[in-house]
Specification:
Blueprint: H1 10-14, H2 24-32, E1 47-51, H3 55-68, E2 78-83, E3 89-90, E4 93-94, H4 95-104, E5 108-113, H5 125-134, E6 140-145, H6 147-160, E7 164-169, E8 181-186, E9 189-194, E10 200-204, H7 205-209, H8 213-223, H9 229-238, H10 247-257, H11 260-268, H12 272-292, H13 301-316, H14 323-347, H15 359-371, H16 378-396, H17 398-406, H18 408-416, H19 422-432, H20 447-456, H21 466-472, H22 478-499
Parallel strand pairs: 1-10, 2-5, 2-6, 6-7, 7-10
Antiparallel strand pairs: 3-4, 8-9
Amino acid sequence: MSQSPSPQSPRSKLGLQLTDLGQLDRIRDALSRNDPRSQFEPLGLREIVVGENVLPDVAETVARHLREAGVAPDRSARVLMMVDPVTIRRDGADFKKAVFAELSGRFDAAWTVLNDGHAVMHADDPVIDEAARFAVGAQCIVSVGGGTVTDVAKIAAQRNGVPVHVVVQTAASVDGFTDNFSVVLQNGVKRTLLTRWPEAVLADTRVIATAPHVLNASGFGELLSMYSAPGDWFLACQMGLDQTYAPVLLDLLELCGEDVETWSSGVRSADHDSCARLAKALLMRGIVTGVGGTTAPLSGMEHLFSHMLDMVSGERGEPTGLHGAQVGVGSVIRAAAWEEFRDRWNSGPVALDRLFPAAETLEATVRDAFATIDPSGRLGEECWSRYRRKLADWHASRAKVEAFFGAWDEKLRQHEAMVLSSGAIAANLHRAGSAKRSRDLEPAPSDELTRWVVANCQFMRERFTVADLLLFCGWWDEAGIARVLARVEAACAAAEDGAR
């Protein structure tokens, strides 16, 4: 995937720029013209406002969408605001209180603080149920904050048939503000649920730029999965395990990453324009996920790495880290894992029969892996039920797998065109001041835990990734994992040396 404009840049292919976030019909038109299989979901998001001060827009935006929903935008309209406990300031004032003042001056407004007692709130069943109870009778939910409270508000609005959901975004930490999915924690395992689109998203770039650096650095880590996850999506689609591959979605992603090497350093220094650029890129990413009807274009092995870390933290009752920061680290790992697979396959491919192990040979492996963190077997059963389905699909797709490797040189060329190397991803993360390796994370997993997560992440869910290929080839043993992690360390060290 190209990082810089060229004569064949996405701007010329689609006629779009990031500024078209304010003109969503232009994006709808580009998608409709490039959807030959009629596979895209309708873009249910109605409005995006990105500006240096969105406070004056909040009440009028709510009123406009209430009116469109057939609700009188006056004192009779029940508007509920949802937040987490984190204090957010704008010019020294409490931003959440300022938003509520705008709402309460015009509507029948109330607010609630969702809190599960963790430093980073989880979208688990108790929090979701609390939000859903609070939302009973609402005509509008306004969520103010980051990705988790946004995801919870989507579910609360969906459960109660709330006609309007307006998001006020306060950090460029994730890309989930502009999609119709919610990432939740169920039975100790992260799941992505189809929920609903918000009607409007308001992104206050001054608040975003002054947010703690760790949040925007986390968002930058999330952004960079666009240079790793499409590789896993491509593999899954080419090998018959996914039918959603659509090049136009990658064209939209190129808009997100355009010139990233020139503005990424501004994320480190909290430069307003760079942080605003990051926010816009993540907003477009969310649209890609939503209209694609799947998170697969942007969620591969790097996301499994993050979700597995969260699973372990949840089982141990320990704090979880920022998702995007973990995804950034996982993106370097995924790139290194692909480089390991590519180089070993080029030096001597294995017999194709070896790529199709029987289910009974892996069941004990999966169950034993998760027994180390959950001796009850609950997680092992949950993950084996998912992996068993993936394994069955893999066997059913044998003809396509064989065809893929029969055209290896061409498939390799196509794959390399949509990803970056581990070194390039690490360099971009370093410029932005984002985590590159596990020990950069907060909290930082031990080396032992990192190895365990990398070794077993493919067992967590149905999504096919390069880790599955390494496993099937017999290359995902201790030595293979050590080689991948050594590649990661070399990429990160080179990024640091290059910046000196």
